[in-house]
Design goal:
alpha+beta, Rhopdopsin 7-helix transmembrane proteins, Alpha-Beta Plaits, 18 helices, rod-shaped
Length: 499
């Protein structure tokens, strides 16, 4: 039995030293305090090992000195650890100094036992067929216990206060240390009063050291982290859904619950309802969706990320659904402003360039037009009237063409109409529309002067690219102007059509 406990104590001391070394080089600020406490626990553990294995009175007495003086070292480092772990205010430093003084006095009086024999003595005691030297406590030993138990009580009180005053979810980091301290204290007290030869409570001190090492440097309060993360996630503006490795929804934040109508935390319905809203979402990384909800068109960005463990195995995934309707509206407004003429509300030059770059030219007819004698309108009536005339031109042209056709103001009084999905059979239709446009514009309205338009028309099937198509329409317009304006010319009538 004694050999077994001796080995256990020596091994415990060894691993306390290993943990102390790691704690000393830890990057955490509390690492040095933890290392000091672990190192301080080694002497009393080894002192008890000496007491247990020795059958010699002198050797056993040395073991008791190592144990008692080592306990003073434990109390001193426990003060530092409690101060740092509980983050006590610096104003408590006077109490620390007072405790240091008491420990120093106790250390001196224990050493003076060598001279006066006032602190403790030992007596032979037979147990399990072996001779032990059991402690005989005297007055100095009572003083020693009063000091150590008093300091221990102060530290326990500090942990108790922080346990009950901390939020419930974060109190565990104090409660665990407090519980271990209480168990170890009770265990040690039982040893003192039972006067058993083997101080098994030292195992409690070793366990206390290991728990301090783990909880101070490595332990992460998962309940606290879960609570904090779920609280943060619940307040995020996007809907979040977390899935296990079988793609079963296990949690959703507040926005996620509201989006798909989850009730009573029945998160498993989320998969079905998400698929109903957005279709197949399981293998997407990021995708823009537009759906009609509550009579409005809503825009969403959906992103899904897979989560793997350290070995690369899939452990789950999370899906975020962000409502970016306002962003899309703002973006559309900005694009609209960038591609539309603010005066006439038709496409501007930039808009024309975007449109023509996407056109299937072989199915496109371009009408290039400008106002006849528009400069005289500005000179005679002023630019304000001239702007209103331009607005009337744009509105009239737009009125006589299809909604899928595009009207663009490319500069001054020059406009372009792009007729999509068109062919040469629409020639008479185009002529009829041009005549009706000019008839309407020749009739003064709303106090605006009459004006006529000249047109140049070209079909994209005869052009190699958009620049050549514009050039064809421009040549046709020039021909119209040279013939007296207020009319139209088809480029195909000027140049034989290519075979």
């Amino acid at each position: 039995m004694r050999v077994c406990f001796f080995i256990i104590f020596v091994v415990t001391a060894f691993f306390l030293g290993v943990c102390a070394k790691k704690a000393f080089y830890s990057t955490k600020s509390i690492g040095r305090s933890v290392a000091g406490l672990l190192c301080a626990l080694i002497p009393p553990v080894l002192g008890n090992a000496v007491i247990i294995i020795s059958g010699n009175r002198t050797v056993s007495t040395v073991g008791y000195y190592i144990y008692f003086l080592g306990m003073n070292g434990v109390m001193l480092n426990l003060i530092n650890f409690t101060h740092d772990y509980c983050m006590l205010p610096s104003g408590k430093s006077k109490m620390k100094i007072f405790a240091y003084v008491l420990l120093a006095i106790d250390t001196v009086q224990l050493l003076c036992n060598l001279i006066w024999g006032h602190a403790f003595d030992t007596e032979a005691y037979m147990a399990d067929g072996f001779t032990y030297y059991r402690l005989i406590p005297l007055a100095g030993q009572s003083f020693h216990r009063f000091i150590d138990y008093g300091i221990l009580a102060v530290n326990i009180t500090a942990f108790f206060i922080y346990t009950i005053n901390s939020p419930r979810i974060s109190a565990e980091r104090y409660a665990v240390i407090l519980a271990i301290m209480l168990v170890t204290t009770v265990w040690e007290t039982f040893y003192i009063f039972s006067r058993t030869p083997i101080d098994r409570s030292m195992l409690g001190f070793g366990f206390f050291g290991f728990m301090v090492y783990y909880f101070s440097l490595y332990y992460r309060p998962m309940r606290l982290l879960d609570s904090m993360l779920s609280h943060i996630a619940s307040e995020l503006p996007e809907a979040l859904y977390f899935f296990d490795s079988m793609d079963k929804c296990i949690w959703a934040n507040r926005m996620g619950i509201e989006l798909v109508g989850i009730e009573n935390n029945a998160f498993e319905v989320a998969s079905v309802r998400l698929k109903k809203l957005y279709g197949e979402y399981k293998r997407i990384e990021s995708k823009q969706y537009e759906i009609r909800k509550d009579g409005e068109v809503k825009s969403y960005v959906i992103s899904k990320k897979e989560i793997t463990d350290e070995a690369g195995r899939l452990i789950g995934s999370f899906l975020s659904v962000r409502d970016n309707t306002s962003e899309q509206m703002t973006l559309r407004e900005e694009v609209y402003k960038a591609t539309h003429d603010p005066l006439t509300d038709v496409y501007n030059r930039a808009g024309y360039n975007v449109l023509i770059s996407k056109m299937e030219l072989w199915k496109t007819i371009m009408l290039l037009l400008d106002g006849d004698c528009f400069k005289s309108v500005n000179d005679t009536y002023g630019h304000e009237v001239g702007d209103k005339v331009l607005q009337r031109i744009a509105d009239t042209v737009r009125h006589y063409f299809r909604s899928e056709d595009y009207v663009c103001r490319i500069g001054g009084d020059e406009f372009v109409v792009l007729m999509v999905h068109s062919n040469s059979d629409q020639k008479e239709l185009i002529i009829n529309r041009i005549k009706r446009i000019n008839e309407e514009l020749q009739t003064p309205a709303d106090g605006l002067p009459a004006i006529t338009l000249s047109f140049g028309i070209a079909h994209g099937r005869n052009a190699a690219d958009s620049d050549e198509l514009f050039e064809h329409a421009d040549k046709a317009l020039y021909e119209t102007k040279s013939k007296g304006k207020n009319g139209f010319t088809f480029y195909e009538d000027l140049v034989p059509e290519k075979d």
